[in-house]
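Lab notebook, bench 4. Still working through the backlog of constructs that have no structural model yet. Next entry is a single chain of 117 residues. Request: give me the structure tokens for it.
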Amino acid sequence: MANAAFDEVYASLLEVMTSHAGELEFTSDKPGHTTVESHDVDAKGKPRWFGAVQTKKNYVSYHLMPVYEDPSLLADISPELKARMQGKSCFNFTTVDPELFAELGALTAVGANAFAA
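Model written out:
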């Protein structure tokens, strides 16, 4: 990991994912990189990718594919969380933010329910 200070951010975001991802499977246990997939498979026979938590050089990324598949899930997010978005399904953090992490947890729970449907 490029930045030891990101360890706490990664651990906190992993807890958000773990607490709200439901029955999904955590498929990667590399330091600084956790991937979450569904038990269902896509058209190519591969597990559907739900999300990931990854430590990058300048931030820790929280990927949440349900918001890519259904952008309406983002309709009620705060401007502060929206400002953390990069692309259509990635949120980047450099510090622990309990308020935003709680909001991200709620979004993850809604996304997990939509993903399972």
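Notes after review: The CA atoms of residues 80 and 100 lie 8 Å apart. Residues 98-116 form the longest helix (19 residues). Flag for follow-up if needed.
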